[in-house]
TrEMBL record:
InterPro entries: ArsR-like_HTH, HTH_ArsR_DNA-bd_dom, Metal_resp_trans_reg, WH-like_DNA-bd_sf, WH_DNA-bd_sf
Occurrences of domain HTH arsR-type (ranges): 23-116
One protein family per Pfam: HTH_5
SMART domains membership: HTH_ARSR (SM00418)
Name of the protein described by the UniProt record: Transcriptional regulator
Sample GO molecular function, one term: DNA binding
Keywords tagged on the record: DNA-binding, Transcription, Transcription regulation
UniProt cross-references to Gene3D superfamilies, sorted A to Z: Winged helix-like DNA-binding domain superfamily/Winged helix DNA-binding domain
Length: 116
């Protein structure tokens, strides 16, 4: 049986009431991050950057993503604040800058990536 299907929800004090305003704000942040991660190319790009910065050329070679698509998706990640850039001469290096994104990527890796 799939281990994910047997996990129980987190326990919560039934007497506790939730303040909806901060919950709504947190939900908006979470859906914004998940929306960005829902694109296969962007997810693969972020996965390649979890162990450190990568140049545009490295990302292109590692993922076999054509340059126009690569530039477009890196632009989205940059606009959403998930990556930062560093220039060295003509080369641009990208790295993950959002610790929440790294945490989610770690969970996704544990659930979906093959174990070596």
């Amino acid at each position: 049986m799939d281990e994910r299907a047997t996990q129980q929800p987190l326990p919560r004090d039934p007497a506790a009431t939730l303040d909806v305003a901060p919950l709504r704000a947190a939900a908006a942040e979470a859906t914004s991050l998940l929306r960005v991660l829902a694109n296969e190319d962007r997810l693969l790009l972020l996965c390649q950057m979890t162990d450190g910065e990568k140049s545009v050329g490295e990302l292109e070679a590692l993922l076999d993503i054509r340059q126009p698509t690569l530039s477009q998706q890196l632009g989205v990640l940059r606009a959403e604040g998930l990556v930062t850039t560093r220039r060295e001469g003509k080369r641009i290096f990208y790295s993950v800058s959002d610790p929440r994104a790294l945490t989610v990527l770690g969970v996704l890796y544990g659930l979906y990536c093959p174990k070596d």
